[in-house]
């Protein structure tokens, strides 16, 4: 047993530093995807709430497609597509040169697209839960549509959307494990490397699972604190 | 105002709003349908000439086999997981600590870690103990990626379904079980005949979501060489280098998810028809 834990040592002998580097990449990937995915989700939600038929149709189609496809498939397709598109653009701008987009960027795009699809539903629910009179009051005070959204709808939106977004954040952390398939040295990938050398799959995958579990538990504490803060103006029920 | 003027006012039938106008003097609705038709025809005109029929001819049967494997994976694991989830949910709801703690640990572990990591843990982890499994006569099971994938998915979905069932059971008014016990019905019949049927109605929608999540999640099995729909797709792509492989997979997954969603909607309407809530 002691021998097994010796394998986790930092340095040339053990795999501790490799796993830590992988875990760090996983965290960075999730944190980079989050703002991108949130923004996308908010835009899609606004499109779905829009008066314009075509914007609504685009928003709904987007959600149907990316909520219906397996994340793994989306990841594969976007990883390859982003690569292809980037290369085409580079060929167009500077013919003859080639260009590799990093796996990290492709991973962020793919995860963000999926996160956007799911978070748009959460935002939509939150927008609809805010009484219509709030926006109307803003307009009647002479605020512009953008000001109304920014100053009146948005602050209330967060409180309502937080529980749903917290769940999606947990899903996002777990989904980052899928990028190990597209050659990115995240936690799971580093674990695979360690397993390949040490031939101790059960131990190392268990450790990887426990690290992911640590992330999700910390996140739960974090989202609970955020929710508490968002609800501070409301009486406890 | 006299009575008569009120009744005569009330006699004016409410008028329909005039149809919204769109561009070119067309009704908005008609215009929208024309736009939709143009978009669809445009998409078809773009996609159909680009279909590589040799690819379709070579792989269509394998794709169908892949869907079959995906459905086997999903229905086996969601079905067995449903059976497994009940005792877990009950343990989680129990007042005894030695029952609650393991149930909570189980649920936290399987909901808090990625499905892919769980699959690797069971599949490759089991390989490490092959001598022990061989001695126990279980190696035939753990050698086969399909079985291990079903096992992993079962464990995973059981945890999610247990939480769904727990929520559903807790959402029922306590009076239901109290009424049963006041009628002299003992504990287990109360649970199976009074609590559980009502809990399932509450849980129906989240369970449908879980089913759809498993259809999508099952694509992960392809990573341990199960030839489900995703596995066939990767195989076809690796052999042909044809990007279409993904297009067909996406189409089939979307159809599968949409079909399951509609069937589930039907089922829900059928099972809740006595409640007259959704009509």
Report the total helices of chain A: 9
Helical fraction of chain B = over 70%
Can you identify the CATH class of chain A?
Answer: Mainly Alpha
Can you tell me the overall shape of chain A?
Answer: globular
- Computed over alpha carbons, the radius of gyration of chain A is 22 Å
**Rounded Rg of chain B:** 27 Å
**Mean pLDDT score of chain B:** 89
Nearest-integer average pLDDT of chain A: 88
The stretches of 5 or more residues of chain B where confidence is low (pLDDT under 50) are: none
- The best one-word shape of chain B is flat
Distance between the termini of chain A: 49 Å
Task: Give the biggest sheet of chain A.
Answer: none
Provide the CATH topology of the domain at 77-224 in chain B.
MetI-like fold
Keywords:
heterodimer; A: mainly alpha; MetI-like fold; globular; B: 279 residues; flat
Question: What is this entry, summarized?
Answer:
The complex is a heterodimer of chains A (237) and B (279). Chain A is mainly α and 237 residues long.
Topology:
The complex is a heterodimer of chains A (237) and B (279).
Chain A: H1 2-6, H2 16-49, H3 53-68, H4 71-93, H5 103-129, H6 132-140, H7 145-175, H8 187-198, H9 201-230
Chain B: H1 3-10, H2 28-47, H3 53-93, H4 97-112, H5 115-128, H6 130-135, H7 139-143, H8 145-171, H9 174-182, H10 187-217, H11 229-240, H12 244-271
Helix pairs in contact in B: 3-4, 3-8, 3-10, 3-11, 4-8, 5-8, 8-10, 9-10, 10-12, 11-12
